[in-house]
Amino acid sequence: MNPPTEVQTVASKRDGTSSATALARWLVYLRWTLLVLLPPTGVALSALAIGSHGLARSNLWLGVVFNAMLLASLQIYGEVQERKATKASVNAQVALAGALDQGTRPLVRLLGRVAEAPDLATRRNEVSRLISVAVASAESQCGRLVETRGNTRCVFYEFAEPDRLVRVFEFGRTGKEARPDFLYGRNDHDKSVVERARGENSFLFADLDDPHLEPGHSDEAEKQVYRCFLMVPVRTQRRSYGFLSVDSDQARSLTKADVGFAVMVSGIMATAIAMLGEDYPNLAGEGIRIASIPEPREERG
Question: What's the pLDDT score for residue 94?
Fold first, then answer.
């Protein structure tokens, strides 16, 4: 198995930092600047207060007190923020671990069914079931680690021909369906999608409203309901079977952690498909919309 080796954030040719992030970063710089300047300022004010008299001396001592209070407040604020960040990091790791467990456990069981299938027809059915569960699982788990989760959708496209990807399974947000196919020679956007599906890297388009979106995607973005999406090839070391995508109607509501989960799901999918050998593609026709998450059948002894 040779999963995607790199996550490329390609929504912008530059950093694309949001105004909120820029403000937060500026506040951090301001805090550290004050932490550097306030101690010597306090010393200077104290020295001036000692050598002064009357109202000026009182004002200088008030300045010393205010300086000390501000310094203490900044230190306390820093400790509070550090604890919040640590707690948020721990919560994110716990949530991600839970998502991995909840999302991949049924897929591992289904992969065992694929391996143990007694004949080719049964194996094809089990592979189709596994992929439908994988698509539903990726949709339900991705986007959970952000504060405001968008309406998500997951789609699996397979290579029906070397230059053509077709939609096989779709799960999630209702309304406008995902496009039925991508054809290499149709336009620059389709060409780039097919090339990425053939490769090994994963991609995260964080914000389709970004004015610096690379050429070939900005025109396509205007036609879409979703504002961010990720794309992960479904492949083994020697062959790509297509790609898995998750999109959301909220910009920046998908993260690199979601890409990591999608990579795990796509790896299980590719392993199952590879067990079919040359009896591939066209697992289940084109454009099946999954109404609900399929439940694995229970074994009966």
Answer: 57
Give the mean pLDDT of the chain: 74
Query: How many domains, the chain?
Result: 2
Is there a single domain that holds both residue 113 and residue 205? yes
Work out whether strand 7-9 and strand 152-161 pair parallel, antiparallel, or are unpaired.
unpaired
Q: How many helices (H) and strands (E) does the chain have?
A: 6, 8
Task: Please say if the pLDDT value at position 14 is more than 70.
Answer: no
The Cα–Cα gap between 79 and 196 comes to: 44
The pLDDT score that the predictor gives to residue 120 is 87
The verdict on 148 and 269 lying in the same domain is: yes
CB 206 within 8 A of CB 14: no
Q: Is residue 249 part of a domain?
A: yes
Q: With contact defined as beta carbons under 8 Å apart, do 134 and 141 qualify?
A: no
Q: What is the pLDDT of residue 121?
A: 87
Integer Cα distance of 217 and 228 in angstroms: 12
Identify whether the C-beta of residue 278 lies closer than 8 Å to the C-beta of residue 239.
Answer: no
In whole angstroms, what is the distance from residue 146 CA to residue 228 CA?
13
Contact 251, 208 (CB under 8 A): yes
Is 165 in contact with 197 (CB distance < 8 Å)? yes
Exposure string of 17-48, with b = 16+ CB inside 10 Å and e = fewer, is eeeeeeeeeeeeeeeeebeeebeebbeebeeb
Q: What is the CATH number of the domain that holds 116?
A: 3.30.450.40
Same domain, 76 and 195: no
Name the residue range of residue 249's domain: 7-16+105-289
34 and 12 both lie in a single domain? no
